[in-house]
Design brief:
With 330 residues, the protein is of the alpha/beta class. Helices cover 31% and strands 17% of the residues. Strands 7-8-9-6-5-4-3-2-1-10-11-12 form a twelve-stranded mixed beta sheet. It is globular and about 60 Å long.
Length: 330
């Protein structure tokens, strides 16, 4: 089959799959404390439905899969799904993004299912600030999960830290030092307009260049990693002393839309060509109405064909997506 190329010439080989819109923490920039409007169980794709969709997508050239949520480890028997996907011929890479709270409970089963790559969401190494951000007192559990995964042989392990201005400046350098000591890359993510409460404002974004300046001043010189994959979301740097590195997902100050290679499947079975997309295509109805693989493949192709040039966060034309991040998939 012909590869998944959009009208701007971008090749798509990366699929992000949300397995739940529920979460067990309440980061203020993502979910309200009293969040209740979660999808009922019958509306969530079954593992068999996800597996079938992945098989069709792989037949179109997709070879990288990332499991997300919500918090994916809230999905019962998640290692079963990971093993199913890992067994599909053509899948070269499978990873998971998690808040880490339940990692220590599931780490061994995830490893046995074939998962190796992990991104753990952790904005701070200060327990009280962790509680302020997440509205939960689970800091120790997250650290325990990270250390257990290191001991089991997961790798690479990366930490995702959302950079909100006037809140996390004091965490930027300690996180980098934590990563240098453990062989973990810290990925700083510029605060994006994906919250459900309308809190985002550009003035609240801690920018990549400002974080780079902090790290260079307090730790040492940083050099851009040569020959980076232009389609990767993060811009990566290595410390000049050879000990570790950091990455930046600078969606606000340095958008990477022109090189995007990702499509997204929501937990309730809708396909999106962008995190900020205003429209979706209903995969679930197609599957549950007995569609053929060819019909599912054509929906995927149509979704990629409809992909826009970019999200326009930095223009007056920007419109936030109608669903918050946790309902789309991180």
């Amino acid at each position: 089959m012909a590869p998944l190329v959009d009208t701007f010439g971008r090749l798509h080989d990366n699929l992000r799959i949300s397995v739940t819109d529920r979460c067990n923490i309440r980061c203020f920039y993502c979910m309200p404390e009293d969040a209740k409007n979660f999808q009922p169980k019958p509306e969530i794709l079954t593992f068999e439905e996800v597996e079938r969709f992945v098989r069709v997508a792989v037949g179109l050239g997709v070879n990288k899969i990332r499991i997300t949520g919500g918090e994916p480890l809230l999905r019962k028997d998640l290692p079963v799904l990971i093993a199913k996907i890992n067994a599909i011929e053509g899948v070269r890479d499978i990873a998971m993004t998690t808040n880490g709270v339940l990692l220590s409970q599931h780490a061994q089963a995830l490893y046995d299912a074939g998962l190796r790559r992990l991104n753990v969401h952790l904005d701070t190494l200060d327990r009280e600030r962790f509680r302020q951000i997440t509205r939960r007192d689970d800091f120790d559990r997250v650290i325990e999960g990270i250390e257990l995964c290191r001991s089991l042989g997961f790798g690479p392990i990366k930490i995702n830290a959302v950079a909100v201005k006037d809140l996390v400046e004091q965490d930027i350098v300690p996180l980098a030092r934590f990563g240098r000591e453990r062989g973990i890359e810290i990925r700083y993510i510029e605060f994006m307009p994906l919250d459900s409460q309308g809190l985002w404002d550009k003035s609240k974004v801690l920018l990549m260049d400002d974080m780079l300046a902090m790290l260079r001043e307090q730790i040492g010189p940083l050099e851009a990693v040569p020959d980076q994959d232009p389609r990767a979301p993060a811009t990566e740097f290595r410390f000049a002393d050879g000990i570790g590195g950091v990455g930046f997902i600078a969606s606000v100050s340095k958008p990477f839309c022109l090189n995007c290679n990702r499509i997204r499947l929501t937990a309730d079975g809708h396909l999106r060509y962008c995190l900020f997309a205003l429209e979706e295509m209903n995969v679930k109805t197609l599957i549950r109405n007995g569609a053929s693989d060819e019909e599912i493949a054509e929906l995927i192709r149509a979704n990629v064909r409809a992909k826009w040039l970019g999200h326009e966060i930095n223009t007056q034309k920007f419109v936030p997506p109608p669903r918050p991040m946790y309902a789309i998939g991180g």
